[in-house]
């Protein structure tokens, strides 16, 4: 899935000249809701050696052993520990905070009531006081970041140019499965992914979508090995001009609902007219909506458990208080 800079990682390893020992790199983490920050970490780790092994932690993701020691203590003492530079502006915790604020007003100037704002502040606040209400993302896009993720390749003679478009929000395994199926449609595919503007995504998805802004979604999709190029802010309708400009041979869409354009027209009208439109079943039932619903469900269950625990503690304290307030029995 992950691309290594300008070249593809392929089988997680690269050829080592005869007589040289391969440098094997171990990189581990929770990798919950894999995002472009994780992709950047793996890209950096991959560049440190010849073969990359990624370890995924169990649901008890900790950085200390049971006796309180640093889990990386031994490799640090052996001088074999390296740190990847963190990608600023994104974290799983930050994304979870955004998902907990599912409201369409997040992408508009519409004002919320003070009660709702107070509720949202406590419901979606991230560590360090970072609050999704003050901005969807603290991520700052640069050309260098795009270069690190981009393939840098143009379509070559004999390649089949395939165009796909969408939000690709919270880029997940469902998206990867779809792109993999699209990739298999041709012997030499060149896949161009068109990413819609945030406001356009909000129009047809509503609520608080997209969770990730256009620049973040760009890096997430570029990190996928099946994608050769990304159109940043693609038009919602696949027009004749777009098809001609990129010399598109095939246009693909998943099994998700195709929402009409603002004027009520079919956004895939032109490729359908040309007979180059295909609907692809990814075989995955995972969607961005399901991820958001799972996060909200887990949060509500967490709050319910805490409220139940607090109620028990209060009841216990009240019982102790009443017991201490009773008059002492008479002594002989």
Explained architecture:
This protein is α/β, with parallel strands linked by helices and 332 residues long. Helix content is 36%, strand content 12%. It is built from eleven helices and nine strands. β3 (24-29), α1 (36-47) and β4 (51-56) form a beta-alpha-beta unit. The protein is flat and about 85 Å long. It starts with a strand and ends in a 7-residue tail after the last helix.
Describe the secondary-structure layout.
Elements: E1 3-4, E2 7-8, E3 24-29, H1 36-47, E4 51-56, H2 73-77, H3 92-99, H4 114-123, H5 143-149, E5 160-166, H6 173-183, E6 189-195, H7 198-205, H8 214-222, E7 229-232, H9 240-245, E8 250-253, H10 269-274, E9 277-279, H11 288-325
Helix/strand/pairing class, anyone? alpha/beta
Give the overall pLDDT as a whole number.
81
Strand content: 5-15%
- Helix share bin: 25-40%
Low-confidence stretches: 4-11, 108-113, 115-136
Distance between the termini: 83 Å
Helix count equals 11
Could you spell the SSE succession in H and E letters? EEEHEHHHHEHEHHEHEHEH
Largest sheet, if any?
5 strands, parallel
Assembly status: single chain
Strand order of the largest sheet: 7-6-5-8-9
Radius of gyration from the alpha-carbon trace, in angstroms: 25 Å
Shape call: flat
Q: How many beta strands in the DSSP annotation?
A: 9
How would you briefly describe this protein structure?
Helices cover 36% and strands 12% of the residues. It is α/β, with parallel strands linked by helices and 332 residues long. The strands form three sheets. Strands 7-6-5-8-9 form a five-stranded parallel beta sheet. A two-stranded antiparallel sheet has the order 1-2.
